[in-house]
Amino acid sequence: MWPVVESAFLYSRWKYGLDFEQVSPEDALANTKVPVFLIHGQIDTNIPVRHSRRILARNPSVVLWEVPNAEHSTAVTVEPEEFNRRLLEWFESHPVTGLSGPAPPS
């Protein structure tokens, strides 16, 4: 998949002026008021958990769940009940407000 991903990065840089070498999730989330829930496997070898810890350190309103024995994107299979419980509780504690658009059908 490397050639496809690299091509997408090149296209994004050409078309939209995005420089992925300058993108920083830490900076992007440092002052956000948007609720953020990070789920990170403690044994993730793709993106080390220290990255999520750095985001949390820059913005204490971020919620971070470090999942023991989970790799990249495996929290749902390693801890399915806990995954569902935490995710549902997080969404219930952050109701959607201020949406515009047509009302849902009754």
Features:
globular, 2 strands, mainly alpha, 106 residues
Written account of the structure:
With 106 residues, this protein is mainly alpha-helical. It is built from 5 helices and 2 strands, in the order ααβαβαα. It has a two-stranded parallel ribbon with strand order 1-2. Helix 3 links the parallel strand 1 and strand 2. The radius of gyration is 17 Å and the shape is globular. The mean pLDDT is 90.
Helix amount? 40-55%
Estimated structural class: mainly alpha
What is the distance, rounded to the nearest whole angstrom, between the alpha carbons of the first and last residues? Answer: 45 Å
Task: Tell me the strand percentage band.
Answer: 5-15%
User: What's the number of helices?
Assistant: 5
Q: Work out the radius of gyration.
A: 17 Å
Q: What can be said about the biggest beta sheet?
A: 2 strands, parallel
Number of strands: 2
Anisotropy-based shape: globular
Low-confidence parts lasting 5 or more residues at pLDDT below 50? none
Q: Strands of the biggest beta sheet: in what spatial order?
A: 1-2
Element order: H for helix, E for strand: HHEHEHH
Mean pLDDT: 90
